[in-house]
Write a structure and sequence with these properties.
The structure holds two protein chains of two kinds. By secondary structure, chain A is α+β, with helices and mostly antiparallel strands. Chain A contains 40 helices and 39 strands. Chain B is of the alpha/beta class. Classes of the chains: A alpha+beta, B alpha/beta. Chain B: One of its GO terms (molecular function) is single-stranded DNA 3'-5' DNA exonuclease activity.
Chain lengths: 1177, 532
């Protein structure tokens, strides 16, 4: 490690140590459930694995193995250790397999996610029909967070352990095998799978799987065919099992095979058939299952590299096959920006901007404004390729959109401000602009490269190859290589024999040969007036100019082109508009290129210089979910994890509860189920963590209800009564005075009730021991306007975005701040002097959104007051303005994980996102495709988090910081981040490889990616980018999706935009919105109506069916429906109107008409219908 | 597997200089031995013919060789022996039987009922005297839907259910309201009628049934050692049952000794027709589906024209006339006819093949273009106009049709799915769909369980209650044929006219396609005919 990196981590760890010291002192006072900080610091991955699993000795062994072999191999090697009992302390064979499987999953997920504890319920041994024993692994839903590879390997590990222990293979019964087939189909339909195996594949896997995969029921929907099987407990879909089978085994077969080959004990020869894809393809004619269209999509993307698309008899250009998957499940209010590969849609440009990479897409800020602000920094889009989804980042060093204004002007808009000014006058968005995707995305998605747009960074390399001294030209102050004059462009193209500069390379491939010929003829008879070319306006010439993206103005009968010289020259004409060729001079090949729909070959034949395709690849996409930057509140919000049952009303107000009088005339006294604890000093029993009498820390106390015996927990933490063997909990019903608690808290803090609006508690506690939180914490939270998550921490959610270089100025801090943080030079190695210098970001540094910063200040104030007033310790933060937050530490943590990562605040952004180094996001196991996760303030986590508050149910420990990583080891993060490219320029060979749609692996050597520096001194630096952007926040600050009010407003805007965008078919959008949003909503609500539950308006009691008493059986109150007519038919009229206005299919209209009839039939009285106005007269 | 593709049939015909109708080609391609069939057709058509029609082909490849139904039939039903089955290989001999294409619109002279053995040499059916027929409808709620989706209407519906079903049980137990029972002294004997509100198994393996009446609920415990504990498996939510038992010492719970369903009395004696007349009970035609079996349908309607079918004077269709639109996602990709009205038009065309002198009654099913919530009113005017064939009666689902004294409860059968899913396999399964129907008869309600798969639309009364015991209970929906007698009520679940769909394949359902159960209304004996 380089000394400066050591210094960097040293700084972070010093601050962390300060916080730990103070927090330890606070915890030692015994006011919390535990007397120590409950988030242990993990030095490395091995530590995390051990901490999460709680198996001693794993960390040491993992470190040992990691030196010699890959992580996957280590996971398999550990199986031996478990079997031989050198690791773990398991006597039973089930226990050994269990330990090995969990450890493998933990190891493969870098000890970050909750899957190893939550995703595997148990391992058990069952009997085959022949009497032999087999292994059954029982998965649960959270196995999802492990990802396909770890899921698949967990099965392999179980099998390896099985064979080492000499247990027989599982021999599935026929009905069990068919059950797998049906169940996976059901799960796919209900929940959706990334990969939907064909029935034959599932059957094949189930038949060959040497261990049984089983699991917990995760949904309500039940299989209808293979029910009530002896060895399958449930008739519902077992989500965990389905995931392991489909996304694990079926999808990751090649990966598993790599490891089965290394193991003598394990043989899975059948994997080969799975990999070859010979399963389920034997009889294609019968195979017409639901998944077939999914498969065809998949195979499209796989095979498109080899396919030379053929259009009739004519030759055509190399193009990627359009993929339609991203359009599925289109939602009202989330617009489509381009249909698949449609002209006018986003033009693919290769490159990585500094705020880019790792599942993001660079969009010009002018585009963001012109598409009515639907895209903002951090908005997710679902995309055609290379991945499925991406987070949008603003990049203004790429081409903006081209629009036609109401007055006929066609202009390219490269300035966001201009975009805002002209936005109301835009009639058509002819081209939505460029779309920056980095090379690493293609590696990560293993997507064949698709033809690159001809761009400046490619052209300069063509120039060099052509013999020009590009560096000298760059240094020449009279030249602007990026934006040359027409003369320069012509000179370079002809003198150097280099393809024409992209600035003047028009989209010849987007016009037809006929349009091309018509345009040439029109120019031939056009004239130049005051330096402006005027040609006749016909539909054809106008469309040709528009689609070429030639800026012009239109009058009633003329099209006037100010910058016409390269159009004319490209058409093989002189500047005096003389055309020296006729159609007959063009070759057949050119005339029939792509069936005559593409004039590229024609223009190449007549142009006096070489022309490259300006925008061969268009990428369709639509809006996914909006960006997020919001504090996380439970619903309803919670200030204190103290139970008050129903007494606080809907608001759960502790104050209200404390005043409620019971039938004995006492106020605020309730029977609460809370944990019984015992004071070790005085032996008193209390629910409090600190003995009210002597101030000592109390411990949970267990007593068997039936036998009255005091019990002790065993090693595994379970408490069994030694006499009746029933399980004992320390949580018992006790009489508690909420009033005394509340008043006491106010008194000890010296606060008055008026200092906060309301203190919200919870109905009841969901944790195992039901230990309530000291109410003082809640009082202070409420005072400072923050609320608590289920684990006692305060959280703020933000969409993740990557950034590898920043300017202090754009982060609203100064270069001095950066110097204080230990930054020394900018990306060019120059000393830091100016606020606008570009500085490479360090891996654990993060940028907070404005909202997050504001919330962190509140939390800091809350924590400080908690320290001073409750723990009697010095304040830690003393934050006055947000500048004071710079340099402070936070925890970053993603949902479904159990490990927090320490990050350091370096600045702020107006975008509603959390920008941080991609490695920081990867350490949390997130990428940036629209994912969101949270930050917590360090000291808040250390003081207030306790495992004792976590819900005692499946998934309860997900999203809780069971361990923290103090420093990021790049080799221990999600390896997706390693595929990000980190160079300043992509080589010419790369661009050329894209033209033949090469496999990304072919050019991987040419472009450095993160992986290449792993394990070297360079692993923390050198994250270069190819494209700059003026500011990491440009464009709208919030997506229109969030600023528009009702769903109707959003949908109107969506359809309006669909009309404006050339690349979008508005009828299809309307059709899809109806089909995927309105109809399911209407059908679902109508179904829900006719089988709904009811609820008492007065006491909240729910009834499965309307009670015959009519009134509430509990309280005599009014019972009412939970689904009303209004919520059932809210979209009916709109859907019918949209279907009509946008010319939807008759099929769709009829479905709506039938539904409308059904609604009438259910909600209208046949005998009392008013059919028209006449009825009222 | 088809031995010949339509294309090769066309080629083969073209070689001989013939053109052919599309349907004719399909027919030939599906023939057991297409080359043979083509040969036979070519031999039989006249020299002048240029275009081979369906009629030409049918004349050769005959319909309906009658086969045994695949199931072991219950004793009540009898298999038809193929007395008139023709041999497809000898077309010449079949001519007489198959030349029954011309529609019989004119009922011939009033031949006596017992003219059964009289053979009409032309092959035309001879209808009996129409004046002997009688047909009336009860419980039809078409046009009577007054529900507006309010809470109180739901309550009213359930109260009506409770009132009517509890009446059936009053003779067996002396009902005390739950409110009164809860105040009775511990240990006393008690009897209670209620809707099943909840069924749970206890830790000890006993069953706790919560029963509800209009005054409240009361918990009833069925201990596992009692022989009635077997019955608990049969319970569905919201059905009405009666229990007798003893209250616990604290009067907090009843220990159940006996449990009663409203049930059909064992003494039930069905009414029968006064003459030998038959009804065909079919359902689930699914016109518009790519799997609709037009050929089987043609054979069925051809058979109806035959002399053998001369006593079949009634046709009852228990729903799903058409495949519908939007019944499941992406259904349009599996439709043969995408337009819903065209589907009904086409259905009407197929219905025209049925002899014009037959009486037809139809109820809608879940694929039809009416509301899905039950009861489902009959079709609206637009659809009625389309299906304005043979003056068919279109009534609600469910409804009771009484034909010549015999009452037939027609119900499409969506609740059968739920009964089969909830009850143990030996009590109800798709392979024995009639057994699931027995349970509905026993519960005297066609769709008791609320909140699950069944959808309920609240109305002034619960139209789904089986107030009067029918003589025949006719359902469809599950596409499996099944029949049998339950306390002398003939329960018939008709098969369907749709071949196995991809969905059915994926969930392991093999439909019984192309069957028509034929009931003798004078004896309630049943015959199942297969038309494939």
């Amino acid at each position: 490690m380089r000394p400066e990196d050591e210094r960097y981590f040293g700084r972070i760890e010093d601050r962390l140590d300060e916080a730990l010291a103070l927090a330890s002192e606070a915890k030692a006072q015994g006011k919390d459930p535990e007397t120590e900080i409950e988030i242990p610091v993990a030095r490395d991955m091995a530590d995390r694995v051990e901490n999460i699993l709680g198996i001693d000795g794993v960390a040491e062994r993992v470190r040992e193995l990691e030196e010699q072999m890959s992580r996957e191999e280590a996971a398999l090697e550990l199986v031996n250790d478990f079997v031989e009992e050198t690791v773990g302390d398991y006597d039973s064979r089930e226990g050994k397999i269990d330990g090995a499987v969990r450890t493998a999953v933990a190891l493969l997920t870098e000890g970050v996610v909750a899957a190893p504890i939550e995703g595997i319920d148990r391992v058990e041994l069952l009997k085959n029909d022949d009497g032999t024993e087999f292994v059954n692994v029982y998965y649960a839903g959270p196995i999802r967070s492990a990802g396909g590879t770890a899921q698949a390997l967990s099965v392999l590990v179980a099998d390896y352990a099985r064979s080492l222990l000499g247990i027989a293979e599982y021999k599935g019964r026929d009905d069990e095998i068919e059950r797998y087939v049906e169940e996976i189909g059901l799960y796919d339909k209900e929940t959706g799978l990334q990969y939907s195996p064909k029935d034959k594949e599932t059957r094949f896997i189930a038949q060959n799987m040497p261990i049984m995969l089983d699991g917990e029921a995760t949904g309500d929907e039940e299989v209808s065919g293979y029910r009530d099987l002896e060895r399958v407990d449930t008739n519902s879909a077992r989500g965990g099992m389905c995931l392991v089978m489909a996304e694990g085994i079926a999808l990751k077969a090649p990966k598993i095979q790599r490891y089965t080959r290394q193991l003598d004990e394990v043989e899975w020869p059948w994997l080969q058939d799975l990999i070859d894809g010979t399963i389920g393809k034997e009889s294609g004619s019968e195979e017409t299952n639901d998944g077939s269209d999914v498969d065809s999509d998949e195979s499209e993307s796989e095979t498109e590299a080899d396919e030379e698309p053929e259009t009739g008899d004519s030759e055509g250009p190399v193009r990627a096959e359009p993929a339609t998957k991203f359009l599925r499940d289109l939602i009202a209010g989330r617009p489509v920006f381009g249909h698949p590969s449609e002209q006018g849609g986003f033009r693919l440009r290769y490159g990585r901007a500094r705020n880019h990479g790792f599942a993001t897409a660079g969009v010009h800020p002018a585009t963001m404004h012109l598409i009515d602000d639907f895209l903002a920094t951090g908005t997710q889009i679902k995309t055609e390729r290379p991945g499925k989804a991406a987070g949008v980042v603003p990049v203004d060093s790429i081409d903006g959109p081209t629009v036609r204004l109401a007055n006929g002007d066609v202009r390219r808009i490269d300035d966001p401000q201009e975009a805002l000014e002209i936005r109301n006058g835009v009639e058509k968005i002819i081209d939505i602009g460029e779309y920056l995707v980095n090379f690493g995305e293609f590696i990560e998605n293993n997507h064949a490269l698709v033809p690159a747009s001809y761009v400046y960074e490619w052209w300069t390399q063509d120039m060099e190859v052509a013999g020009a001294n590009v560096q000298a030209m760059l240094d020449d102050p009279r030249m602007d290589l990026d934006d040359p004059t027409p003369d320069e462009a012509i000179e370079w193209a002809t003198e150097y024999d280099c393809p024409l500069h992209p600035q003047y390379t028009y989209l010849w491939h987007d016009i037809s040969v006929d349009e091309f010929l018509a345009l040439a003829d029109a120019i031939d008879s056009g004239e130049i007036v005051d330096g402006i070319l005027a040609i006749e306006r016909t539909d054809m010439t106008q469309q040709a100019l528009e689609h070429l993206l030639v800026e012009h103005t239109a009058t009633a009968d003329a099209l006037r082109i100010p910058e016409w010289r390269l159009v004319v020259r490209s058409l093989g004409m002189t500047e005096s508009l003389r055309k020296s060729w006729t159609k007959a001079d063009l070759s057949d090949r050119a005339l029939t290129w792509d069936g005559g729909a593409n004039a590229m070959e024609a223009v190449r034949e007549v142009a006096p210089f070489e022309l490259r395709e300006r925008a061969p690849t268009r990428i369709g996409n639509r809006m996914g979910r909006p960006e997020k930057s919001e504090k996380r509140d439970l619903s309803p919000a919670v200030h204190t994890l103290f139970p008050i049952r129903e007494a606080g009303g809907n608001q759960r107000s502790v104050g209200q509860a404390s005043r409620q009088m019971d039938d004995k005339g006492r106020r605020g006294v309730f029977d609460l189920q809370v944990g019984m604890r015992e004071c070790p000093s005085c032996g008193d029993h209390t629910y409090k963590s600190q003995c009210p009498d002597c101030g000592d820390h109390t411990e949970p106390y267990y007593e068997c209800d039936d036998c009255g015996i005091e019990c002790e927990p065993d090693e595994s933490g379970r408490v069994l009564c030694p006499r009746c063997e029933s399980e004992i909990s320390s949580a018992v019903w006790q009489e508690v005075s909420v009033r005394a608690e509340y008043r006491g808290a106010l008194e000890s803090l010296g606060e008055r009730e008026a200092t906060f609006d309301i203190l919200k508690g919870v109905k009841g506690l969901t944790s195992a021991h039901k230990i309530p939180e000291p109410m003082e914490k809640g009082v202070l939270r409420s005072k400072h306007g923050v609320s608590s998550f289920k684990d006692g921490t305060v959280r703020y959610d933000m969409t993740d975005l990557p950034v590898t270089a920043v300017r202090p100025e754009e982060l609203d801090v100064t270069v001095d701040h950066f110097k204080e943080l230990g930054y020394e030079t900018d990306i060019n190695g120059d000393r830091l002097i100016h606020d606008d210098q570009l500085i490479e970001l360090k891996v654990q540094d993060i940028v907070l959104s404005d909202g997050a910063a504001e919330h962190m200040i509140r939390i800091a104030n809350f924590v400080d007051e908690l320290l001073t007033d409750y723990y009697d310790l010095p304040a830690f933060y003393e934050v006055n303005g947000r500048d004071d937050l710079v340099g402070e530490l936070v925890f970053g943590m993603a949902p479904h994980t159990s490990a927090a990562v320490v990050g350091r605040v370096v600045g702020f952004t107006a975008a509603a996102v959390g920008y941080a180094h991609p490695y920081f996001h990867a350490a949390k196991r997130r990428n940036c495709d629209g994912d969101e996760d949270c930050v917590m303030l360090l000291m808040d986590g250390l003081l207030n988090f306790s495992k004792c508050y976590l819900p005692d149910k499946r998934g309860g420990s997900m999203d809780a910081p069971l361990v923290m990583s103090s420093r990021i080891d790049p080799s221990e993060i999600d390896d997706e981040a390693h595929n990000m490219d980190i160079v300043r320029q992509y080589p010419r060979e790369f661009y050329e490889a894209t033209l033949r749609m090469a496999d990304p692996g072919e050019v991987e050597e040419l472009i450095q990616i993160g992986e290449d520096t792993l394990g070297t001194d360079e692993q923390y630096r050198g994250f270069d980018h190819t494209h700059d952007t003026t500011n990491i926040h440009m464009g709208p600050s919030l997506s229109a999706y969030k600023t528009l009010g009702s769903m109707m407003d959003k949908m109107d805007a969506q359809l309006e935009l669909a009309r404006k965008l050339r690349a979008v078919d508005e009828t299809d959008v309307a059709e899809r919105v109806i089909e995927y949003h309105f109809l399911p909503d209407l059908i679902g609500n109508l179904r829900a109506f006719s089988r709904q539950k009811t609820r008492c308006l007065d006491c909240g009691e729910k009834y499965r069916r309307m009670p015959l008493t009519e009134e509430c059986r509990e309280c005599g109150g009014r019972v009412n429906l939970t689904v009303h007519q209004g919520s059932v038919n809210k979209y009916m009229d709109t859907a019918i109107e949209v279907a009509d206005r946008f010319g939807c299919r008759e099929y769709t209209k009829q479905r709506l008409a039938i539904l409308e009839k059904s609604l009438e039939s259910v909600f209208e009285d046949d005998t009392n219908k008013q059919s028209g106005i006449a009825d009222f007269m | 597997m088809p031995s010949e593709t339509p294309a090769s049939v066309v080629q083969s015909l073209a070689r001989h200089g013939y053109n052919a109708e599309r349907e004719a080609v399909t027919l030939l391609a599906r023939a057991p031995d297409p080359p043979e069939a083509i040969g036979a057709v070519l031999e039989n058509i006249s020299e002048e013919t240029l275009r081979i029609t369906v009629t030409d082909v049918r004349a050769v490849i005959d319909s309906a060789p009658i086969e045994d139904p695949p199931q072991e039939p219950p004793v009540e039903a009898q298999n038809t022996e193929s007395n008139q089955a023709t041999d497809a290989d000898s077309p010449v001999e079949t001519e007489g039987v198959t030349s029954k294409q011309p529609k019989r619109d004119d009922p011939t002279d009033s031949s006596a009922v017992d003219d059964a053995e009289e053979i009409d040499t032309s092959g035309n059916r001879r209808a009996s005297d129409i004046s002997l027929r009688s047909l009336s409808i009860a419980n039809d709620m078409t046009g009577q839907s007054t529900g507006t989706g309010e809470y109180k209407q739901f309550v009213r519906t359930f109260r009506d259910r409770y009132e009517r079903l509890s009446k059936l049980l009053r003779s067996r137990v002396n009902h005390r309201p739950t409110k009164a029972i809860s105040k009775m002294p511990g240990g006393s004997e008690a009897e209670l009628i209620g809707l099943v509100n909840d069924v749970r198994s206890t830790k000890g393996g006993h069953w706790l049934i919560e029963l509800e009446d209009t005054t409240g609920t009361f918990p009833c415990l069925v201990t596992k050692d009692k022989n009635i504990s077997e019955l608990v498996n049969e319970l569905l939510m919201d059905e009405c049952i009666a229990v007798q038992g003893r209250l616990s010492d604290d009067a907090g719970i009843m220990f159940v000794d006996s449990l009663h369903f409203p049930d059909v009395p064992r003494t039930h004696r069905p009414s029968t027709a006064d003459r030998h007349v038959q009804a065909a009970l079919i359902s689930d035609i699914h016109v518009g589906s790519q799997e609709f079996m037009a050929e089987a349908w043609h054979q069925f309607t051809d058979w109806l024209h035959s002399e053998e079918a001369q006593h079949v004077e009634y046709l009852l269709i228990a729903g799903d006339m058409v495949e519908g639109v939007g019944v499941y996602p992406n259904q349009d990709k599996e439709l043969d006819i995408i337009d819903i009205y065209d589907q009904y038009e086409m259905f009407a065309e197929y219905l025209k093949e049925v002899p014009g002198d037959m009486e037809i009654v139809m109820i809608p099913g879940n694929h039809d273009a009416v509301r899905l919530a039950e009861p489902q009113p009959g079709f609206d005017d637009r659809l009625r106009d389309i299906m304005d064939i043979h003056d068919a009666r279109i009534v609600s689902n469910p409804a009771t049709v009484t034909i010549e004294n015999v009452s037939v409860l027609m119900y499409h059968g969506v609740s059968l799915d739920e009964v089969i899913a909830e009850l143990p396999e030996e009590k109800a399964s798709y392979d024995e769909s009639h057994k699931a129907m027995y349970h509905l008869l026993k519960k005297r309600h066609v769709a008791p369980q609320y909140g699950g798969r069944n959808r309920l639309a609240p109305e002034t009364q619960d139209y789904l209650v089986i107030d009067n015991v029918p003589d025949i209970f006719h359902t469809g929906h599950v596409h499996k044929i099944g029949w049998g007698k339950y306390h002398n009520v003939l329960a018939v679940n008709s098969g369907c006219w749709q071949a196995q769909t991809d969905f059915q394949k994926s969930v392991n359902i093999n439909p019984d396609s192309g069957y028509a159960p034929i009931v003798d209304l004078d004896t309630l004996n049943m015959t199942v005919r297969k038309f494939v």
